[in-house]
Design a protein that fits this description.
2 copies of one chain form a homodimer. By secondary structure, chain A is an alpha/beta fold. Chain A has 2 domains: 241 residues, Type I PLP-dependent aspartate aminotransferase-like (Major domain) (Aspartate Aminotransferase, domain 2, 3-Layer(aba) Sandwich), CATH 3.40.640; 107 residues, Alpha-Beta Complex (Aspartate Aminotransferase, domain 1), CATH 3.90.1150.10. Helices cover 39% and strands 15% of the residues of chain A. Chain A contains 10 helices and 14 strands. In chain A, the strands form 4 sheets. Chain A has a 7-stranded mixed beta sheet, sandwiched between helices. In chain A, a hairpin with a 4-residue loop joins strand 6 and strand 7. In chain A, helix 2 packs across helix 7, helix 3 packs parallel to helix 4 and helix 8 packs parallel to helix 10. The first copy, chain A, is globular and about 75 Å long. Chain A starts with 5 loop residues before the first strand and ends with a helix. At the A-B interface, helix 1, helix 3 and helix 7 of A face helix 1, helix 3 and helix 7 of B.
Chain lengths: 370, 370
């Protein structure tokens, strides 16, 4: 059994070790059926039970009202970027988008294929280091789209925007879903690629209100209609069965941790350890505005690319992997999703403190020699 | 460690046990990295190596020429049904389709959204129990589509149809890909959902010729353009990393069996055991015409629904699962993909022989009593 290391990857990302153990067993034989979870027919009773358990746990965790459907789709959030306007936006219609990073921008680009996009707010002026508060909504919006957490830029909405009127709120929650309680009834639709907080890549969770399902476009391929998947319990064609199984086990694990409120508390504690250090550090600087900080992706820099690289190499040698920041921001990014252990954050801060002290000594040494 | 049973499921289907063992280890730590295969970034070196190995093995196995791209997509064959005409068929254009079952029909329905469909042949007159040989091609076809194996109806093309002119041949090989050698250069595009012969559901393998990639439509969402995935080595967005890993291990396993020629030989032997028995049985009758029989899905009936049900229950009690036929055909279906063991086919025939003998005795008993 090889040793595990601390994995700060932004996604696909670290998963609960107990879930990995369960998945290992299920690969060989699911619940004593003598057939592995990947090998069960999606129409058989064993997988139907997995699907039902996964949906039930999802509903319990997030308190999803009965007038919402839970769907398990494929294609990632990137496929939702065009599927949403294809279903809800006709030529001549307008949808509101708040632009807080690369993913929101991609969502805007796809919506423009189908109708008008009104950008209600953007933080592009300062390289997306904050969540805009001054929002200008259009008067007749078919829906309002935002990205709750920005993986690349390390920013996160403290709570959903207040939208006037009845424009349904649609949120890409890929990188912070189930990291804190969600007031589902405030949304028309929530979607998330699984590979950050929910499971393996290849499954997209969609939570969608009934009226959006029934009012959506009919003149598009069946596979791209939410209706099709809602009417067929996500089994119109073969769904990604293994990913759905793993997602179900992750939901179970979150329940074992005490549910979304308890997970949110733990996520706050983990983030505080790192942000508290960053606020006092002379060497390391957080990149996001204080009121816009993400609890999932914590971005920071030294200000010198060679020093950043040196720290990343030092951390990697110490068994802390995946800390290199995205090229749009540079520096470091610590992704500390639900399953990332507190001990890993403590180890990171210890290492940063040590690195900073050594840099200080080296500078003093240079000064003496100079 | 729980015991495994014989799984005749039509898909998701049985996988090689050695691959399941490898996947169990990789879930915890991939190649000693200390990070599980589901948890590795798709941009990191560990997954990049997995992706390259999977593609290389695929190319070696099928002898894929350099002017073809190998893509790993999502959404199943059902998503290809609309993606193909969306990319290759403009309004006013015509594409040829051969209709040999439910999946070909669904493919036709989607193509009609974009252009004209010319049905070059169909076997619907006899409930798809044969592969049509009398084919009537259109004169100017953008492409020619067929389904090499029909999971539901137990029929399979002995070899690809001879298409006059230069209409690129596009094949849905979901249920018999890599069960025998493929002459890739005869095709414009081959696609297959993974969940029968290649791995878990949630990955679609696409093998596509360069000119089809470059000549395809540009006015469709990037995620639906083959171009996008070809230019980004299937990593435009996060691909289904675990499924790609498993597919790579399945390719490796096929190579260990001696490659596609050896696998084809083994598949022939397995199918012969069952078809030879069916040809001599008084009770069980094969449903497909002899010259159109599938080596992957072997369909048969007793002619009496209650007797079919009794046999299926008897088989299930004996540890042979998944034998119930699709409702379109009724009776039984034994899916014996690459990974299905010969011993399972032998066990099935033994059970059928025994069941038939007991039915005979029961009848004789009734006759004596009557």
């Amino acid at each position: 059994m090889s040793e595990r290391i601390f994995n700060f990857s932004a996604g696909p990302a670290v998963m609960p070790e107990s879930v990995l153990r369960e998945a290992q067993e299920a690969l060989w034989s699911l619940d004593g059926t003598g057939i592995g979870v990947m090998e069960h027919s999606h129409r058989g009773s064993a997988f139907k039970a997995v699907l039902a358990q996964t949906e039930d746990a999802c509903r319990r965790l997030a308190g999803i009202p009965d007038n919402y459907r839970v769907l398990f789709l494929q294609g990632g959030a990137s496929s939702q970027f065009f599927t949403i306007p294809m279903n809800f936006l006709q030529a001549g219609d307008t949808a509101d988008y708040v632009v807080t990073g690369s993913w929101s921008k991609k969502a805007v680009d796809q919506a423009k294929r189908y109708g008008n996009v009104h950008v209600a707010g953007t933080s592009e002026d300062r390289n997306f280091c904050y969540i805009p508060s001054d929002l200008d909504w259009s008067s007749k919006s078919r829906y309002t789209h935002f990205t709750s957490n920005n993986t690349i830029f390390g920013t996160e909405w403290a709570k959903e925007p207040e939208v006037p009127g009845d424009s349904p709120l649609i949120c890409d929650m890929s990188s912070d879903i189930f990291s804190r309680p969600i007031d589902v009834k405030r949304y028309g639709m929530i979607y998330a690629g699984a590979q950050k907080n929910l499971g393996p890549s290849g499954v997209t969770l969609v939570i969608i209100r009934d009226d959006l399902v029934s009012d959506a476009a009919l003149d598009i391929p069946e596979m791209l209609q939410y209706r099709t998947h809602a009417e067929n319990d996500s089994c119109y064609n073969t769904p990604p069965t293994f990913g759905i199984y793993v997602m179900g086990r992750v939901f179970h694990w979150i329940e074992q941790q005490g549910g979304l409120k308890a997970i949110a508390q733990l996520n706050q504690e983990k983030a505080d350890i790192l942000y508290d250090f960053l606020d006092e550090s002379v060497l390391f600087k957080p990149t996001a505005d204080k009121d816009s900080r993400s609890l999932m992706n914590i971005t920071f820099v030294t200000g010198k690319a060679d020093l950043d690289a040196k720290f990343i190499a030092t951390a990697k040698a110490a068994g802390l992997d995946g800390l290199k920041g995205h090229r749009s921001v540079g520096g470091m990014r610590a992704s500390v999703y639900n399953a990332f252990p507190k001990a890993g954050v403590e180890r990171l801060v210890e290492l940063m403190r040590d690195f900073e002290a050594k840099q200080g000594e080296a500078k003093q040494g240079e000064a003496k020699q100079g």
